[in-house]
Structures are given as structure tokens and as C-alpha cells.
Amino acid sequence: MQFDDVHRVEKAKKRAIVNQSEARNRVELFRHLPQYVHGTQLPDLESKFFQLEPIHPSVYKVGLQYLSGEVSGGNGRCIAMLLAFREAIKDYSTPPNKTLSRDLTAKVSSYVSFFIECRPLSISMGNAIRFLKNRIAKLPITLSESEAKASLQSDIDRFINEKIVVADQVIVSHAITKVRDDDVLLTYGSSSVVEMILEHAHELGRKFRVIVVDSRPKLEGQGLLRRLVAKGINCTYTHINAVSYIMHEVTRVFLGASSILSNGTVYSRVGTASVAMVAHAFGIPVLVCCEAYKFHERVQLDSICANELGDPDVISKIPGRADLGDLKNWADNENLQLLNLTYDATPSDYVSMIITDYGMVRYS
């Protein structure tokens, strides 16, 4: 939905379960994206727990986890959503004078709307939702309710296993052929599949070093760094502003992705494009690891038309530096807007290879 369309926004507000307060200092270029005051939704939603009859408790729980940031990452969010749907289907019973396929599709749609209010869907989640709705629509009418529910639960389990769990294992088996002794591998942020590749390479006895590049405000790389060091992997940690300084040491760059678009654009956590472009300038191969279920037919040339805006307050604060409070009351200045983008788009020109569960695709 275009959030700069006043009439459509008003209609959406009337249907909304989560009370959202629009941010005062909205960034003009991104008015088409939702910009809300962060920190108010979670307490309001928690207070409504016993009032939300149409929302299944498992769906409600996952929505709260999205809001709080407890569940994050493309695969993590998708799996949590599908498991919530699985529980909701398990407890579902068809109302009188209604058909299962139509009523359950409407239920799933209402759950999806709730998730969107908590946090905009990732592309992978959208693909998973389409899969589930397609399976519901194709249920044979001869099946009993219990058989139909069992079939859908089995479909969800199969999707998680084949499209995510096994897919990651296949990607690791492909990517491991690109890791050699004495390599210096650079990764950005924290990608679950890249982490699996690095751990597997270490288990095979490959001698390599990892450079973890990180950026505020999420600092996801710190968690990855701790886990890799705990496994005994030799690591270096740096922030994205120093990536050009350290890139001359690197032999390969491994990146995760939120999605691969039909024009070859890599849609991933903000900062990925910068890392890929610096690597390209140094002549370093950039390998992007992405499960096939995250591919999308959309074409995107920039990070403006479609994106997600994070909490602007978090970039005004630096953890451990209370003395840096120049932006403490930034929201009171109507001429100042802070922008915290979640994703960026990396053109295919800066990617050497895509590694998927269907194989490796060379870009250039």
C-alpha cells in the first residue's frame, strides 16, 4: 500500500489492530512508506491480548516477537510465521455454512494483515504466504476437515524443510568449494547461511580467516563474531566505514540476501551494496548466498520505491557513549529528519556469483 495515499491510509487505520502513531518528522522522499513512532505499539498490543478474538494466540505471539525484534532475519521470520500458521490451522474448525478453503484463506489473510501491522513482510514471507494460499485453494473437496488440516500442516513442514533447511545445506555444499586454505573471507552483518558455510569449512579443516564487517544500529555482526570465535575460527571485526581500508586483504566476499530480483538485483540488509561495490573496485569476487524461495519476479532499480524504515531514534544514540547527545531531542526540530533504512539494492554489476540450492550462477 502507498502510505502517501491519504484515503487508503484512513481505511487501513479503521481496520488496524495495532495503534500506530505517525512520526512527526517524516522523510519526504519516503512518504510512501509507513513511518510510525516506535516504542508505542508493543505495550498497546500487549494490553489487548484478551480482546483479539480473531487472532490465534500463536499468530499473536509471533507478531509481538516481530515488534520487539526478538525474531529477525529472512529465514527466522518466515519459519516463525509458517509455524504460527501451522498451529492456527491445527486449531481451526470450519464455521457452519462455510467452506474450509474460502474461510481458511480469509483467516490467513487476516493473520497476514496483523503481521504487516507489526512489521512489513519480507519478500520471502510473501512467497511463503502465496504457497500456503495456493495449497489451501487446491485442497480436494472430497477431503474431510481433519484430512485437509493434516495435509496443510504437512505442506508447511515440507516447505520449511525443503525450501529452507535442506536448501541451506545444499548452498553450503556448493559454497564450500569456493573456500580454500589461506583465504581471507569477508562477510557483512550476520547471515545464517554464510555462518553455516564458515563453520562447515572450519570443520573440514580449511585454514582461513574471516573479516566480519558490521554497521550500526543493529550491529548484527557482533553476534556472528562471538559465535565464530567460540568455534575457534580466526576473525577480525571492523565497521563498514573501514571496509575500503581492509578490503586489500580479502580474497572473497560472502554475503547473504533477503531476495534476488528478476533483473539480478540483490535486495539485502542496508550496507550490502556498499560492501559489494568496494569489493568490485578492488577486483574481489562477491558471492551472494540466497535460497531459491527468496527469488522474486519484481524489478527494482533503487532502494527508494520499496523498502522498510527502521526506528530513527536508534541511529541518534551510540551505545556506551552517553556523552554524545547532540541529537537527543532531534524530533523537536521540524527541519531535521533521520532516516534508518533496513534494506538496499545491489546492482548485478557488482555481484560475481549467486549461490542457490539449485546451483551456482555466475553473473560476470
TrEMBL record:
An example Gene Ontology CC term for this record: cytosol
UniProt protein name: Translation initiation factor eIF2B subunit delta
Alphabetized GO MF terms: translation initiation factor activity
UniProtKB keywords: Cytoplasm, Initiation factor, Protein biosynthesis
Domain of life: Eukaryota
Cross-referenced InterPro entries: IF-2B-related, IF_2B-like_C, NagB/RpiA_transferase-like
PANTHER family, per the entry: TRANSLATION INITIATION FACTOR EIF-2B, TRANSLATION INITIATION FACTOR EIF-2B SUBUNIT DELTA
Organism placement in taxonomy: Eukaryota, Viridiplantae, Streptophyta, Embryophyta, Tracheophyta
Cell location: Cytoplasm, Cytosol
Self-association and partners: Component of the translation initiation factor 2B (eIF2B) complex which is a heterodecamer of two sets of five different subunits: alpha, beta, gamma, delta and epsilon. Subunits alpha, beta and delta comprise a regulatory subcomplex and subunits epsilon and gamma comprise a catalytic subcomplex. Within the complex, the hexameric regulatory complex resides at the center, with the two heterodimeric catalytic subcomplexes bound on opposite sides.
Family: Belongs to the eIF-2B alpha/beta/delta subunits family.
